[in-house]
Design brief:
elongated; 58% helix
Length: 209
C-alpha cells in the first residue's frame, strides 16, 4: 500500500470516529471538556469577583471618589501610626464566600442607582446621606459588625493599653451586648446632618475620625 493510500485510510478512520464516536470515548470526551470548561469558568468568575473587590474599583465612580472616599482619607483607617490600612472592601465586603456573594447581589441595586444618577452630584449625595448611612448601620448591626471584627477582635483587646475613657466604654459596651457600630458610627465617614446620635457614637465630638 502506498504512503498516500495509508494516509487516506488513517484520515478516513479518524473522520469516521468523529462522525460515529463510541460511547466510551464520547463520555470521556464530554467529561474532559466539562472539567476544563468548569475550571475556566470558575477561574474567570473568581477573577471577576476579585477585580470588583478592590478599592480602585470601589472609587471608579465619581460618586464614591468625590464624597465618601475623600472623607475616609482624613480618618485613622486610611493613615495611622501602624501603617495598617482598612480599605473600602475590608469594611463593606464580607470575607466569607457565601456572605460575599449575597453582598455582591445586593450591590446590583447600587448599580441601578448609578444608572439613575440618584447621587451623582454633591447636593444629591448630601440629601441622601442620612438614608445611606442608616442602611449601612442597619446592615452592620444585623451582622454584629462582622467586617469590623475581621481586624478588631474583642477577645484580643488589652484594656490596660487603652485610654481610661475608651477602656470603660468598651467594658460597659461589651457587658451590655453592644456591637462596634453602636458606638463608632462616625469612625470612617462624616455623620449625616440633623441626625440624633449618642455622643459616644461619634467618638465624643461628632466630627470625622
Amino acid at each position: 500500500m502506498s504512503s498516500a493510500n495509508a494516509d487516506k485510510n488513517i484520515l478516513a478512520r479518524w473522520w469516521g470516529a468523529l462522525k460515529r464516536p463510541s460511547t466510551r470515548y464520547a463520555a470521556g470526551s464530554l467529561l474532559g471538556i466539562g472539567i476544563v470548561a468548569g475550571i475556566v469558568l470558575w477561574g474567570g468568575f473568581n477573577t471577576a469577583m476579585e477585580a470588583t473587590n478592590t478599592e480602585q474599583f470601589c472609587i471608579s465612580c465619581h460618586e464614591m471618589e468625590e464624597n465618601v472616599y475623600r472623607e475616609y482619607q482624613n480618618t485613622i483607617h486610611y493613615n495611622n501610626r501602624s501603617g495598617v490600612r482598612a480599605t473600602c472592601p475590608d469594611c463593606h465586603v464580607p470575607k466569607e464566600w457565601t456572605h460575599k456573594i449575597v453582598r455582591k447581589i445586593q450591590a446590583s441595586n447600587e448599580v441601578w442607582h448609578k444608572l439613575l444618577g440618584s447621587i451623582d452630584t454633591p447636593e444629591k449625595f448630601e440629601a441622601k446621606r442620612l438614608q445611606l448611612a442608616r442602611n449601612v448601620w442597619h446592615a452592620m448591626k444585623k451582622t454584629d459588625s462582622r467586617e469590623c471584627r475581621n481586624c478588631h477582635d474583642f477577645k484580643s483587646m488589652d484594656y490596660t493599653k487603652q485610654g481610661r475613657r475608651g477602656r470603660m466604654q468598651h467594658i460597659e459596651g461589651f457587658d451590655e451586648g453592644k456591637t462596634c457600630i453602636d458606638c463608632h458610627k462616625g469612625i470612617a465617614h462624616s455623620l449625616p446632618a440633623m441626625v440624633e446620635v449618642d455622643p459616644s457614637a461619634a467618638m465624643g465630638d461628632g466630627k470625622r475620625h
